[in-house]
Design brief:
The protein is an alpha/beta fold and about 250 residues long. About 55% of the residues lie in helices and about 10% in strands.
Length: about 250
């Protein structure tokens, strides 16, 4: 007589590992609920699909590199009144990713730009998209190292594999000529091919300051805002507010 262990091994041989692992419990549930053979067959497939999706989401979340676990449910719209919950919720159908559009959050430090970017990124991961979070400084260093090794094109190709690239804190530090060139190459490669979320403390009119060259700033801005949703955030810094309250 065939045992559960033997059947489980057969499922593993065709890479249905989650069915194999949960087969005993699934059989007990089926017997307890007296479900039909067809319903049981559907339950097996659903179990495998759900576990695979969960595993893929968990793997994509690790690869995303979020520095902290910020969620949109925790965002304080009472404090940050320059953007509404409805505006953010409308982004969560992820049409902007499907249409290769960008999001740009502009505002002074501490007003919630990074929280929003990470929160939207987290939701995108759970919806099945591949996301990468990286600070502008780390991105510049990554591109510079690749350029020194003669692997800039290869690095850009790697970054293009993500559906959504979140670049945090763009504009806090000036860039040298090579860094500007490398960033332009990336933005140009992503243009109308992948989506980007930018957080920055400078309005577009001031981007020439940290690029130190309007000839580079203009084409980068042009590509970022051509298909984009721009949000201007104002108000008092969360961190300063909480420090005073503490």
């Amino acid at each position: 007589m065939t045992s559960i262990e033997q059947i489980a091994l057969q499922y593993r041989s065709i890479r249905c590992n989650h069915i194999a692992q949960g087969l005993a419990d699934l059989l007990r549930q089926a017997e307890a609920n007296e479900i039909s053979c067809l319903a049981f067959a559907e339950a097996l497939v659903s179990h495998e699909q759900q576990r695979r999706n969960q595993r893929r989401i968990e793997m994509n979340r690790r690869k995303a590199g979020f520095p902290v676990d910020k969620r949109l449910a925790e965002f304080d719209y009472r404090h940050q009144t320059t953007i509404t919950k409805r505006q953010v919720s409308q982004l969560l159908d992820f049409q902007f990713i499907d249409e290769r559009a960008n999001l740009v959050f502009i505002g002074p430090p501490g007003v919630g730009k990074t929280h929003l970017a990470i929160g939207i990124g987290q939701e995108a991961v759970e919806a099945g998209y591949k996301v990468l979070f990286i600070t502008a400084l780390a991105l510049v260093e990554k591109l510079e190292l690749a350029e020194i090794k003669g692997e800039l094109k290869k690095q850009i190709t790697t970054l293009q594999k993500f559906d959504l690239l979140i670049i945090d804190e763009l504009g806090y530090l000036p860039m040298n000529r090579q860094a500007r060139y490398n960033l332009f190459q990336l933005v140009n490669a992503l243009y109308e091919y992948r989506s980007v979320i930018i957080t920055t403390n400078k309005d577009f009119t001031a981007w020439g300051e940290f690029f130190a060259d309007d000839n580079v700033a203009v084409p980068i801005v042009d590509r970022l805002i051509h298909h984009s949703h721009v949000f201007m955030l104002g108000g008092e810094s969360y961190r300063l507010k909480h420090k005073r309250e503490g």
